[in-house]
Specification:
Distance between the termini: 78 Å
Helix content: 10-25%
Radius of gyration: 42 Å
Shape: elongated
Order of helices and strands: EEEEEEEEHEHHEEHEHHHHHEEEEHH
Number of helices: 11
């Protein structure tokens, strides 16, 4: 929550809106945030008008709950407006997300026929006091959910309250619960009605639907599919992983809900189509130089790998699936093709990652100390003579001359030199004839 000019701004990602509260006047203002909600939609038919869909709108509520409504108010309503809609008991408040012909496509996807299914009505646009009452009901949801869990535990019911959603007028609440089996919650509803003084509706959901209500990120780094676009949850089995040759590791195949990931079903149809063109190899292929055993199969590229050594992963030979089918037919007719070793391996486009090939510091060089060993040569010899000795290979080494006493860099009978090969100044008194320096 942020405070700007005496206004408290709250980002409600459950409903996809931004709520600002003026602390001086007490008024609420709500704005729709299209990219900050679950099951977000994009109106790719914006600007296209069709008379049969002009009064149809999609209205969203908390988390993944949506509905199709017809405008019976006579007011001009557009996407992003807060509207008061018809409910089973009382009225509810929601946000308009779609309008126009794209609503008709949504109805077709959900199997809703406006001629046979009666649609609920939009009464009017929400007023400030409607928004204030709506926010008061939202503020009760978290505390109500905690108390509902405590009451269910006291009654000994094997169920979990996953979420609570209050109606816009605050007279009704939907309790979403998870249970493995049938739960008799008649006594629970009575206790809830006495405790919260509202009408109670119990709605059972699955583990995948709970993950969609809560939201989050998957191992791929993207938003959970159940919170992004999936509305119909189909059963997923391990056969989908076997079809795609995936490792049957429960930790890798399970999603945030603890069930098998929904994305396992996304590419099953492509794998089944590719597998229909791959022949079944039940026995080794016979060649002139011996049998070849199937080691592995690349389903999408339709390439099969064989080896002359059974169970060995070395010296694999890639053969196209269509060629394998021809070889099987030849073996059935008693014919043996030539060796796989003489056939070139099929070369196709390969994906090569360049990550790590070039280092970021490849142009950086260590700083050299230019003042190091300046004026010094090996063994006190000239640089030309030293370099000549190091570059000449195979020549006899010169005979070393006897070193004078007292060190390598000393001369007999001469003055001593310091480290820079400079003669030291004589130590003694000044020249008596030299006058001392005086300040001018």
């Amino acid at each position: 929550m942020e405070k700007v000019d005496n206004e408290a701004i709250k980002f409600d990602c459950n409903r996809g809106c931004t709520v600002s509260h003026d602390q001086e006047t007490g008024e609420y203002d709500c704005n729709y945030r299209q990219g900050c909600c679950k099951l977000k939609d994009y109106d790719w038919l914006h600007g296209i008008r069709q008379e049969q869909f002009k009064d149809l709108f999609e209205v969203r509520f908390k988390n993944t709950r949506k509905g199709i409504y017809i405008n019976a108010s006579g007011q001009g309503i557009k996407a992003g407006d807060l509207v008061i809609v018809e409910a089973t008991n009382g009225h509810d408040l929601g946000i308009v997300t779609l309008e126009g012909p794209v609503v008709g496509r949504q109805m077709k996807c959900k199997g809703v026929d406006p001629e046979t299914v009666p649609l609920k009505k939009i009464y009017r646009r929400a007023k400030p006091f409607d928004i204030a009452k709506w926010q008061e009901a939202i503020a009760r949801e978290q505390e109500t959910m905690i108390q509902a869990r405590r009451i269910a535990a006291e009654l000994g019911l094997d169920m979990k309250i996953g979420d609570v959603e209050f109606q816009g007028d605050g007279t009704k609440a939907i309790f979403y619960y998870i249970a493995d089996g049938r739960v008799d919650f008649r006594q629970l509803i009575k206790v809830y009605a006495e405790e919260f003084r509202i009408r109670i509706e119990m709605k059972q959901i699955g583990a995948r639907q709970e993950a969609g209500l809560i939201g989050g990120l998957g191992v791929c780094g993207r938003e959970l599919c159940c919170a992004n676009f999936i509305t119909n949850f189909q059963s997923i089995s391990t056969s989908a992983a076997r079809t795609q040759d995936l490792s049957l590791n429960p930790q890798k195949l399970a999603g945030q809900c603890g069930k098998l990931k929904c994305c396992l079903n996304f590419e099953v149809a492509n794998y089944l189509d590719a597998q229909s063109r791959i022949p079944k190899v039940t026995e080794p292929l016979e060649f002139e130089d011996g049998p070849a055993y199937l080691v592995k199969t690349d389903i999408l590229q339709e390439i099969m790998y064989f080896s002359y050594e059974k169970g060995s992963l070395a010296n694999l030979y890639a053969v196209a699936a269509s060629d394998v089918a021809q070889i099987i037919m030849m073996n059935r007719n008693g014919q043996k093709p030539e060796s796989l070793r003489s056939e070139p391996e099929p070369v196709g486009p390969q994906f090569v990652s360049a990550v790590g090939d070039d280092s970021i510091t490849r142009f950086d060089k260590p700083k050299k100390n230019k003042n190091k060993n300046r004026g010094k040569n090996k063994a006190g010899k000239p640089a030309a003579e030293t370099s000549g000795q190091s570059s000449a290979e195979g020549q006899a080494a010169p005979v070393a001359k006897p070193r004078p006493e007292g060190g390598n860099n000393r001369r007999q009978g001469g003055p001593r030199r310091n480290g820079n090969n400079r003669p030291q100044r004589p130590r003694g008194d000044r020249n008596p004839e030299q006058k001392p320096k005086t300040d001018a």
